[in-house]
Amino acid sequence: MENPGLCGLQVNVPCQSFPPTNQPNGSGVFPPESTPSQTPAAVAGWNAVEGGSSLRKSASYSNGLLISAMSTVAVSLLVAVICCIGWIVYKKRCNNYNQVLHGNGSEANVGSMLVMFHGDLPYTSTEIVKRIENLDDTDIIGSGGFGTVYRLVMDDGCMFAVKAIGKQGTGSERLFARELGILGSFKHRNLVNLRGYCNAPAANLLIYDYVPNGSLEQHLHELEAHQEKLSWTARMRIAQGSARGLAYLHHDCCPRIIHRDIKSSNILLDDCMEPHVADFGLAKLLEDNDSHVTTIVAGTFGYLAPEYMQSGRATEKGDVYSYGVLLLELLSGKRPTDPFLLKKGLNLVGWATSCIRENRQLDIVDAKCVEGVSQEHVESVLKIAARCINPEPDERPTMQWVVQMLESNTVSPCNSDLSTFYNSPMSDHANNNTHGR
Asked: Does residue 196 share a domain with residue 59?
């Protein structure tokens, strides 16, 4: 008020580019030869223009500082929230491990019950249970769909693998114990040996022999650049041993067992690179008078037989298909769902099938592992794999046939006991009552 020369956004008066005058010409433009008279009000208006510009600059600078401060605070809060969530998840995970092993609340007072299937361990039950109860997340050596695996080290340095499986309900405990008892009676050099189990407050802990050389998946796909790849001899030994173990489950166990999750990560290797099939004890057990069919879908994508994926009905021929994929994986060094193949819309089976149809069988094989190996031998193994991955289940061979074919074409120096091991499963059981031993 009483300052008519003020202008700018604050007073809703547009500012001029030069001070106004009291005597403009008719067109509103000052004559070029004249100088506009500057009244006190005009001078005040001109100064107001400059003042308004300074105010705008100051306001813009203040807004920038405010935005910057708010952004910094927001980012800091976000980082703090992420850190808190990460800490909570970490603690929850550790607590889950402890709860699985030890239980909590009233369950902790129940204690653990140990059942050993073989009496050949020089430890008391108290010693084993004490060691199991001291396991924590630093002892974890792996995890999978069936549970978390821990390394159990005894006082004398002997090691075992302990798989923790969360309990689903008390009603199934008796059945679970019965099935584990059956599995504990099965012994084969190409199966991971199940020593016993511990009924902990919150989990069933399966105790296996420790297999120190890792899984086949690690040796095929996770080697460092300086590490040597598996030789042809080693790959054939692994293929034969895995086939023997699977054939034992299908044909020599009573009741027969369908594995349902044959894959490279379930083939464990010992110090001599001898394969041991793992996780077979967690598959569905089939009685002799059963239909050999289960409706529980399990397995790993890339290894599953097409009829199993469509219907969920698992049979021995589904295991044969998975073994065929494993054999192709050994020959090619490629994963069943190799990213290079997926870009072409193929998996390992589709790519290998196209190579066979186009008479490019040798393109399937890893060239670095077949140096010095006859082409006839390589092609014979490829034919076995092709038979196993036949889309028609009835056209696939049995695992006994696979073992016989691999043994007859072997170049491995290891001794074979096929001729004495697979004569007649039932006659072995009848003659010496050591069936499955």
From this structure: no
- At 419, the amino acid letter reads S
The answer to the question of residue 195 being in a domain is yes
**Widest CA span in the chain:** 133
> Is residue 261 among the annotated active site residues?
yes
Domain count for the chain: 3
Residue 7 within any structural domain of the chain: yes
Q: What is the pairing mode between strands 267-269 and 194-199?
A: unpaired
Hunting for tokens 């994926």 — which residue is that? 309
Q: What's the pLDDT band for 30 if we cut at 50, 70, 90? A: very low
Q: How far is CA 31 from CA 27, 172, 353, in A?
A: 10, 106, 94
**Residue 31: inside a domain, yes or no?**
no
H/E segment holding residue 203:
strand 203-209
Q: Contact at 8 Å (CB) between 139 and 151?
A: yes
193: Cβ–Cβ under 8 A, 6 or more apart, which residues?
Answer: 187, 208, 209, 276
What is the number of other CB atoms lying within 10 angstroms of the CB of residue 51? 15
Query: What DSSP line would sit under 280-299, residue for residue?
Result: GGGSPB--TTS-S-B-----
Give the residue numbers spanning the domain of 259: 216-432
- Helix ranges, 24-168 (H): 40-102, 125-133
Question: What amino acid is encoded at 51 in this protein?
Answer: G
Structure tokens at 243: 């086939």
In a domain, 380, yes or no: yes
Do 394 and 256 lie in one domain? The reply is: yes
Structure tokens at 359: 């008479």
Cα gap 172→179, rounded to integer Å: 11
The CATH number given to whatever domain includes residue 336 is 1.10.510.10
State whether 232 and 278 are in the same domain.
yes
The H-assigned helical ranges of 264-416 are 306-311, 316-332, 339-342, 348-357, 375-388, 399-408
pTM of the model: 0.67
Distance CA 41, CA 434 (A): 118
| Selected catalytic residue, list 261, 279, 319, 428 | 261
User: Could you report the per-residue pLDDT of 306-365, keeping only the tens digit for each?
Assistant: 998 888 788 899 999 999 999 999 999 999 999 989 888 999 999 999 999 999 999 999
What is the 8-class DSSP label of residue 16?
P
Beta bridge partners of 36: none
